[in-house]
Design goal:
Layout: H1 2-10, H2 12-67, E1 107-113, H3 118-129, E2 133-139, E3 157-160, H4 166-173, E4 184-188, E5 192-193, H5 199-209, E6 213-218, E7 238-239, E8 244-245, E9 251-252, E10 271-273, H6 274-283, H7 306-309, E11 310-320, H8 337-346, H9 364-389, H10 400-404
Parallel strand pairs: 1-2, 1-4, 2-3, 6-11
Antiparallel strand pairs: 4-10, 5-11, 6-10, 7-11, 8-9
Helix pairs in contact: 8-9
């Protein structure tokens, strides 16, 4: 031991060599530790950042999905497979599929019909089919097969339910998502004369004038006209207001803003744009089948100013015969007498209403008129109640379509 120690002390070269080796080793170990720790920290840092990005991405996706509007019931489906709308295009059971033609069948005619008006309905349908309309017939008398002899019958959609009005049918078979393919919906009665009506010119006029809700003017000489606004003015192509004294002593003039002076159509031959019908459909009450009172509220569905977007087309006019088809003709009563008598009855307070009497089975038309007036009062009360209770309702609120314009 003494020898080795003395040799170590006596050899400075060897001592320097061992010192250098020792220091070099320490330096290498320190460097390895330093860079290794940096790598480890960076690795963990990247993982932490990655986890944060994933969380942020998932949060963003979640928020985007929350704001993305999906139809009720489709939440479990991928967006691309959802078919939100439909149409009335019939398809064959085999062979090539029928394809929609973008230049044709872009409008829809829907009529409630009975076999007694077959001749007039035939004239109406033939005129509309020549303008590439889709035609839908609502058979309120159930006699569908008796229309099969007409050459166009196989091209029309036939729906049958006994003794139902066109508004009952419309609420159930003309949902906006079903008829969204059609630019305009003509929801007409069957007792109309169309000798002076051209479908193509009418469509051209309402597009040019920007009419969201319209109707052909009524020939005042030959029609049953209930409101002066809808009577034809042979001096104009379209009119939106009238300037005259109307029923009840009310004066209509150019400053009028309310129906029936302006912003109004009658219900025998209304024409709705796609956007206005989506609104009107929701206003139709499911249980009020005669839809009385609806005409006075149509302005809220005019997609803007009702005094501009609702109009009467004078150059293309029709005749309204006013045939009381549902319920038949009431004996010993004229059409003019029925509304006045019913109005006198319905205007009384409920406590003063006369006791109801059993109606004769041969007088169903009178019962139809009575129910129509009862439904009118119900609708008016529902409207008032809805306005009173909806604190968020803004009658002048713009629709999404208006906001884009």
């Amino acid at each position: 031991m003494m020898m080795s120690t003395s040799i170590y002390h006596k050899d400075p070269t060897r001592r320097w060599f061992f010192s250098c080796c020792f220091l070099s080793t320490i330096a290498m170990l320190s460097a390895v530790f330093f860079f290794g720790s940096q790598c480890v920290l960076s690795d963990y840092k990247e993982k932490f950042l990655a986890w944060g990005l994933v969380d942020a991405m998932q949060y963003t996706i979640s928020k985007n999905c929350e704001t993305h509007c999906r139809p009720d019931g489709t939440e479990a489906l991928p967006k691309g497979i959802v078919s939100k709308t439909s149409d009335l295009l019939m398809q064959p059971l085999w062979g090539p599929r029928n394809k929609k033609n973008s230049k044709s069948s872009t409008n829809l005619l829907a009529i409630a019909v009975g076999i007694k008006q077959k001749e007039s309905v035939n004239k109406i349908v033939k005129k509309f089919l020549s303008s590439d309309f889709v035609v839908m017939l609502f058979h309120y008398d159930g006699r569908v097969n008796e229309w099969r002899d007409l050459e166009w019958s196989g091209r029309a959609i036939h729906v049958s339910a006994m003794n139902q009005t066109k508004w009952w049918y419309a609420k159930r078979f003309l949902h906006p998502d079903i008829v969204s393919e059609y630019a305009f919906l003509f929801l007409w009665d069957e007792d109309l004369g169309i000798e002076n009506f051209n479908v193509g010119r009418y469509l051209s006029i309402i597009r040019k004038e920007g009419l969201e809700i319209s109707q052909p003017a009524l020939d005042p000489e030959n029609s049953e006209v209930h409101h002066d606004l809808t009577a034809r003015d042979n001096r104009t192509e379209v009119h939106r207001k009238i300037n005259k004294l109307i029923g009840g002593g009310r004066r209509c003039d150019q400053n009028s803003t309310d129906p029936p002076c302006t912003g109004f159509v009658e219900m025998m031959a209304p024409v709705f744009s796609r956007a206005s019908w989506r609104c009107v459909w929701h206003m139709i009450q499911n249980d009020l089948v005669h839809a009385w009172g609806l005409d006075f509220q149509l302005g809220y569905c005019a997609q803007g100013d009702r005094t501009k977007n609702i109009g009467i087309v004078d150059s293309e006019y029709i005749v309204h015969y006013g045939l009381p088809t549902l319920g038949g003709l009431a004996p010993n009563k004229t059409n003019a007498e029925a509304p006045d008598q019913a109005a006198k009855t319905i205007s009384l307070p409920s406590s003063e209403q006369p006791a109801s009497t059993s109606s004769s089975p041969s007088d169903p038309r009178t019962e139809v008129r009575k129910l129509s007036f009862v439904e009118l009062e119900i609708f008016k009360n529902r409207w008032k109640k809805a306005v009173r209770e909806d604190n968020c309702w803004d009658p002048y609120q713009k629709t999404p379509q208006q906001s884009k314009n």
